[in-house]
């Protein structure tokens, strides 16, 4: 494809979403939050009473392939219902991680992800953007941050939304999620061979944005 893509992959709460959305905005590119697709699939499965396991894999994949999804003004609509808040909880993150380990579900969501690749360009964030979905991307960033920093950031985010949690439970949740995401057999969380590594534990968001924009200029 002639359409340029920037991939930003990394573990839970590493700051991928904020960074990718901001880079997309500054470049005037489209933005794909691939995690939201797994989160919505997890929610749809839960509502259909389907536990995320191999026995239900085909049924959950069928749900994923036909999600009545719309993205408008930063909101995610499922069959017209605004589920933006429902998919952001920690429980929804865990559900997403479980359905995302099912190979047929990952396959069912591939076309939808590829359709986000439109001119003038795309910034995509997730776990396997650079390794599986857009392997020909001109720039691949693997974004990390220490577990303590990630737990703290997620804590702030949730508190600001009025959701109460403790730092300890968040940290163990995100470590459990990363362990599952890294050890699964299909599309595990790992840097692409040609990824550039960015540890933003001690970096401001502005600094991370500048770094990615500089790298983007270098590869043009
Ligand atoms: O990025 P986010 O935390 O919203 O993703 C939720 C879950 O969806 C992740 O823990 C991961 O299991 C799954 N995911 C994935 N592949 C992606 C994006 C997200 O498996 N490209």
UniProtKB/TrEMBL annotation:
Residues 6-216 form the Cytidylate kinase domain. Its main location: cytoplasm. Keywords: Amino-acid biosynthesis, Aromatic amino acid biosynthesis, ATP-binding, Cytoplasm, Kinase, Nucleotide-binding, Transferase. Residues 175-198 are annotated as: Disordered. ATP binds at residues 10-18. GO terms for cellular component: cytoplasm. Monomer. Belongs to the EPSP synthase family. Catalyzes the transfer of the enolpyruvyl moiety of phosphoenolpyruvate (PEP) to the 5-hydroxyl of shikimate-3-phosphate (S3P) to produce enolpyruvyl shikimate-3-phosphate and inorganic phosphate. This is Multifunctional fusion protein. It comes from Acidovorax cavernicola. The gene is cmk. The chain holds residues 448 to 667 of 672 of the full protein.
């Amino acid at each position: 494809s002639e359409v340029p893509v920037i991939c930003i992959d990394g573990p839970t709460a590493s700051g991928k979403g904020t960074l990718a959305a901001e880079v997309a905005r500054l470049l005037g590119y489209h933005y794909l939050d691939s995690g939201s697709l797994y989160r919505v699939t997890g929610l749809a499965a839960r509502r259909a009473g389907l536990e995320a396991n191999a026995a239900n894999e085909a049924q959950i994949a069928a749900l994923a392939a036909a999600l009545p999804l719309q993205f408008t003004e930063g909101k995610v609509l499922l069959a017209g219902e605004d589920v933006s808040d429902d998919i952001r909880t920690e429980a929804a993150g865990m559900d997403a991680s479980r359905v995302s380990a099912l190979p047929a579900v990952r396959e069912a969501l591939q076309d939808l992800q590829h359709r986000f690749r439109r001119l003038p360009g795309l910034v995509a964030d997730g776990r396997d953007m650079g390794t599986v979905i857009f392997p020909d991307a001109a720039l691949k960033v693997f974004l990390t941050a220490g577990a303590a920093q990630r737990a703290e950031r997620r804590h702030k985010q949730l508190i600001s939304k009025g959701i109460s949690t403790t730092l300890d439970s968040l940290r163990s949740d995100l470590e459990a999620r990363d362990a599952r995401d890294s050890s699964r057999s299909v599309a595990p969380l790992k840097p692409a061979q040609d990824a550039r590594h960015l540890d933003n534990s001690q970096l401001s968001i502005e600094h991370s944005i500048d770094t990615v924009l500089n790298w983007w200029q270098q590869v043009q």
